[in-house]
Design goal:
The complex is a heterodimer.
Chain A lengths: L3 E4 L5 H14 L10 H8 L7 E6 L12 E12 L3 E11 L8 H15 L4 E7 L3 H9 L3 E2 H5 L1 E6 L1 H9 L5
Parallel strand pairs in A: 4-5
Antiparallel strand pairs in A: 1-2, 2-3, 3-4
Helix pairs in contact in A: 1-2
Chain B lengths: L3 E4 L5 H14 L10 H8 L7 E6 L15 E11 L2 E10 L9 H15 L4 E7 L3 H9 L3 E2 H5 L1 E7 H7 L3
Classes of the chains: A alpha+beta, B alpha+beta.
């Protein structure tokens, strides 16, 4: 199937927002999605963007049954490892189910790695849910190591309420 | 003990590089540290920095035993990130000389990162910790965080070296 991978434009945020929700539904956590296309537009296309995004697009004649030509996305940002230096973190990779098996996921992942390499990143990191076998196998087949299993790394999170509690005790400047 | 928290500047990179190595020794992975003071200077203090840092500093009279006359510091690297549905701050590493533990410095650094993140519109603070590092795990849990690996099944994966090179080929 013919498809194109390109950087997302501000106008793509409605499609990206649609697919973020599709991915969240698949991950059984739709209630956790708190942002809409407006936040994506603000945060991804400002002077110092919080993320970058790639889109997978098919020609009009291959559009989805609901009429969409934007059928996949990869959303990522740059992080820093104090051991290795510049890194890229892949936050989301998603291809609509009816377009899977055509190399689109691989295309998106490769492009993120290529973009990261251009910025001299030496690592590509991501998180995957333990029950998501197809995703785990997909990444493992591309050479990703599971650092939770092999080295015991755990992901820790403070939500907004806990951040606010913590921040109250920050020393005065 | 009197201490102050401030933004790191480029001159702090030498101290930060030293403490990164000390933390790696503690985590038993010294051979994995590939970056240098120069990398930190370039990556943290250029036009589009890859990270921000804050420093905890004590007055001269409280300096550590080894210090060559310099006041030892603790640092925390902070990066602004978006997590799919929420804007987030991720913190990479913290390290504190043993003699300065128990003085509220770790808590002060974390609090400052949270404050800076909230000021920038962030809704999450994320980072990773080694499961055997009990004192760190206990410290973070005590501050109210969630272990999303244990509670939600998130596994942290990494593509590096040859695997990343191979992926990046068009």
């Amino acid at each position: 199937m013919d498809f194109k991978i390109r950087p997302a434009r501000k106008e793509d945020c409605k499609d990206v927002s649609r697919m973020i929700m599709e991915l969240a539904v698949f991950e059984n956590m739709p209630d956790q999605v708190k942002i809409s296309h407006e936040e994506l537009e603000r945060d991804g296309f400002c002077q110092n963007p919080f993320f970058e995004c790639l889109i997978a697009e098919v020609p009009e004649e291959h559009k989805s049954k609901d009429g969409f030509t934007v059928v996949g996305y990869a959303l990522y940002f740059y992080t820093y490892s104090t051991w290795k230096g510049r890194s890229v973190y892949l936050e989301d990779l998603y291809v609509m189910p009816e377009f899977r098996g055509n190399g689109i996921g691989k295309g998106l992942l490769s492009k993120v790695a290529e973009v990261g390499k251009e910025k001299q990143c030496v690592r590509l990191n991501l998180s995957v849910l333990d029950w998501n076998t197809s995703a785990r196998e997909f990444y493992a087949a591309k050479g990703a190591q599971n650092l939770t299993e092999s080295e015991g790394w755990h992901s820790i999170r403070f939500d907004k309420l806990n951040m606010e509690n913590l921040a109250k005790e920050a020393p005065k400047d | 003990m009197d201490f102050s928290i401030r933004a790191a500047n480029v001159e702090d990179c030498k101290d930060i590089a030293r403490m990164i190595t000390e933390l790696a020794e503690y985590e038993k992975v010294t051979d994995q540290v590939k970056i240098t003071q120069r990398d930190l200077e370039q990556d943290g203090f250029s036009k589009n920095p890859f990270f921000h840092g804050i420093i905890a500093e004590v007055p001269e009279q409280h300096k550590s035993k080894e210090g060559d006359g310099k006041t030892p510091t603790r640092y925390s690297t902070r990066q602004m990130q978006v997590f799919g549905c929420e804007t987030a701050v991720a913190s990479d590493k913290k390290w504190l000389y043993l003699c300065f533990l128990g003085k509220g410095i770790g808590k002060a650094l974390m609090s400052k990162v949270a404050q800076l993140g909230l000021a920038a519109g962030c809704h999450q603070l994320n980072f990773t910790v080694l499961d055997w590092n009990k004192s760190s795990v206990d410290f973070y849990l005590h501050q109210g965080c969630t272990d999303v690996t244990t509670d939600m099944g998130y596994h942290y994966m990494s593509c590096k070296g040859e695997a990343m090179e191979h992926l990046a080929q068009p």
